[in-house]
UniProtKB/TrEMBL annotation:
It comes from Corynebacterium kroppenstedtii (strain DSM 44385 / JCM 11950 / CIP 105744 / CCUG 35717). Belongs to the PhoU family. GO terms for cellular component: cytoplasm. Residues 19-103, 122-203 form the PhoU domain. Its main location: cytoplasm. It is found in: Cytoplasm. This is Phosphate-specific transport system accessory protein PhoU. Keywords: Cytoplasm, Phosphate transport, Transport.
């Protein structure tokens, strides 16, 4: 009986990884549609969202079954509860890529991003793909240190989003109001996509340690200071032959 329980728990975790990989592919197609005015890529995103939705429903059903029939406790309970929130974050990431694909399709055959803004969005797209790749590794390993990296990577996207917002609000903005609205919304979609990845990282930290990220970081700093003190103490002992 418990073997079946472990199999169901492992399948639930595996489906989260599959969902993450599907969203990474959506992000790749959405960015190609946006930056290259590629209508086929935009349609691919709008089609693949149905597969992600099926995975979302499947994961939610698995979580409810595990809670109702298996009564998980301790770490397993955290794993299921955190998993239900992770599913919702992944679903929102998928929806944000759909928004980007729809903007690209609406402006086709023109590119929705003005030429001078393309480098900024190319970098945002690359950063989001890198974050999603890291997120995959986090969901495989449940490594809290790797999960913390998501928040550090998110800072670069936040900076780009802020810079783009400043550019669109300057008097010297050389493009139309429609362009400004598109650019602002598109930047926001990428920024929110990254934020949801950070949220998933926070949930993985809680799952792995039972602590919120700020608690884990504070405890880590304390452990690092203690390890440094012990190392220095050992060096002194070796230097003076264990006598003081």
């Amino acid at each position: 009986m418990r073997d079946d329980y472990r199999e169901h728990l492992a399948e639930f975790a595996h489906n989260l990884i599959v969902m993450c990989d599907s969203i990474k592919e959506m992000a790749s197609h959405a960015s190609r549609a946006l930056l290259s005015a590629d209508l086929t890529s935009a349609e691919d995103v709008l089609t693949s969202v149905e597969d992600v939705e099926e995975l979302r429903v499947k994961c939610e059903q698995q979580a409810f079954q595990l809670l109702a029939l298996e009564s998980p406790v301790a770490r397993d309970l955290r794993r299921v509860i955190s998993g239900t929130y992770i599913v919702e974050d992944l679903s929102r990431m998928s929806a944000l890529m759909v928004h980007i694909a729809k903007v690209a399709r609406r402006r086709h055959p023109d590119c929705a991003v003005p030429e001078s803004m393309v480098p900024y969005f190319s970098e945002m797209a690359k950063q989001c793909l890198d974050i999603t790749a890291t997120l995959h590794d986090v969901l495989v390993s449940y490594d809290p240190e790797l999960a913390l990296q998501l928040a550090r990577d998110d800072d670069a996207i936040d900076d780009l989003h802020h810079h783009i917002f400043v550019l669109t609000t300057q008097r010297e903005w050389p493009y139309t109001t429609t362009n400004a609205v598109d650019v602002t919304l598109l930047s926001r979609y990428y920024e929110r996509y990254s934020d949801h990845a950070v949220q998933i990282g926070a949930r993985v930290i809680y799952l792995a340690t039972g602590m919120r990220p700020e608690e884990y970081v504070g405890g880590k700093d304390e452990r690092d200071r203690e390890a440094t003190f012990i190392r220095h103490f050992d060096e002194i002992q070796q230097r003076y032959g264990g006598t003081f």
